[in-house]
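Researcher: Here's the sequence for the chain we discussed earlier.
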Amino acid sequence: MRQREGYRPLAKARISDVARLAGVSTATVSHVINNTRFVSEATRKRVLQSIAELDYSPNEMARILKTGKKKLIGFIVPDISNEYFSALIEEVERTVASQSYKLIVTNTRENEQNELDSIRALTSGMVDGLLVASTAHSFRSLREAVPEDFPVVLVDRTFPDSSFSSLTISSHRAVYQGVTAMIEKGHKNIGYIAGLQHISTAIERLRAYKDALHDSRLPVQEDLICFGDSMHNSGNLYVGELLQRGCTAIAVSNNAMAEDVIYYCHKHGVVIGKDVDILTSNLDDRRYYYLGKMGYVRQPALELAQAAGQQIMACIADPNAPAKDKIFQATYMEIGG
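Model: Thanks. This is the structure I predict for it:
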């Protein structure tokens, strides 16, 4: 961008140069850069234009020393290869960027020790706040790894005794509707591939499956319930076994394992919607229309991620604010045909 006529900055622009060119105080320039106080849109645009014209780059270490903020947020996820968590990461990153935050992501691979190590590393001065989709077995172990008063928001997964803010999705109603729909089609032997038994989302979905059977006066057959590890390459281990046990329908706890089930059926010539009915969770449904009609539990991932980004920024701004919990609702639908 061409500089305004008649203005000659120093070789390396300073904040005072930006202020003088924009016709504002250095404090106003600082507020625009750090988003620390309201500045009118007209003034903000003028400051940003001056920054661009002068190619001004604030000293990052000086800013950190002055504000105490690194403008970095950590996000600990259990499985980065899972498209659901990838979608969360992308939308959280977009949301926090509105306040000039950057995102640091670590992948625990559903391993609690990896998670605790990541928490300790990120909270040792690297980030201003932390989002966690936890794989911990208890809130206590998670809490003990976090420094006192450090801003933390739990995402997707939570604990009954948590004292942190949380944003989660309830799938009970949607899974219940999906299993009930299978029963109404005449299925009596409905298999279930569950996720890790200590994860809040997996616990709730398994309960919904059992509730649907119970309310339809069908027995819960424990030998038709298999437990995967909530990641890829575990759901496919149980499909053949469930089919051999007489299952005509299979419900799957999460999308990673559901992809395994669909791949197994495709590979072994099992026709979905004819040989077996499937209830999936949060798959990109456009990729699966050609495979036949399936029940589908949609998780509002983008809404969850946006709220998570906003909540962690609020916690950073006021670490002493009371914890808040927000629950979104999954929805049941059918795809394909």
